[in-house]
Amino acid sequence: MGPFALIVAIVGSLIIALIAAIVVRDLWSNKIDLSELLSDSNKSSLSRFQFLVFTFTIGLSYLLLVVNHLANACNNCITTAALPDVPVGVMGLLGISAGSYVLGKGIEKAAQTAGERPPNGQQPAHQGPPNVA
Amino acid sequence: MSVLATVIEIEAWLFLAAIGLIVLVRFVRAEINIGQAQLSRMQFLTTAIGFAAYYLSLVVSNPDAPTLPEPGTPIATAFGGSSSVYLVNKLVRMWPTITNVDRTR
Predict the structure, then answer these.
(1) Residues of A with Cβ-Cβ distance to B75 under 8 angstroms
(2) Is B74 part of the contact surface with chain A (CB cutoff 8 Å)?
């Protein structure tokens, strides 16, 4: 591995490690609230939580693969350096993970918006000034 | 395997283990509200952490592979099914609110 590639790899892994450490610290100190993770509450989001876990796992796996590629590559052959392919199955897993996050948020938002409307068949409450005439 | 690759591998395992441990500790201390807990959420949570750990073990077991390993159709189907069950359950529970039905009448 060339010195520049090594520095980039170290910086990349340090950035991800820092983000992961902040997430774990906030989870531990309850700054990220997990108390309603298993119930329908807006305080905690299970879909966001699983998206976080999958994104970190796939991201770190990819970084690991890139570092191994660089370590195995011939130091003098610059042209062989290329990012490894991501298979369709991995894209599918990430798509399912992201899709369930987006759909979950969509359902929550729809329920929240509908909750602000008056029930079906009822007139909306009078918003104007009282009729004094 | 280079030292850096080993560090990243440890970093990934530590992150997953810390996340799993924090959830477990909160669960044991009853700091996660299980009064209204739903089975669909429970299975989705365990499936997500379990599949992430499984996938990481696939990557670590073959570090010199040219691409990321294929998770396989059964894994993708199982995870898709798990998230579908979670989403359908959520939709069913929130359907009366979304359709804005006055259930008091």
Answers:
(1) 89, 93
(2) no
**Domain limits of chain B?**
3-99
Three-state helix/strand/coil letters over A103-118: HHHHHHHHHHHHHCCC
Is B76 part of the contact surface with chain A (CB cutoff 8 Å)? yes
pLDDT over 90 for what percent of chain A? 34
- Give the pLDDT of residue B44: 92
C-alpha A61/C-alpha A94 separation (Å) is 13
pTM, entire model: 0.81
A111 contact B CB<8A:
yes
**Is the pLDDT confidence value at A43 over 70?**
yes
| CA B90 – CA A103 distance, rounded (Å) | 10
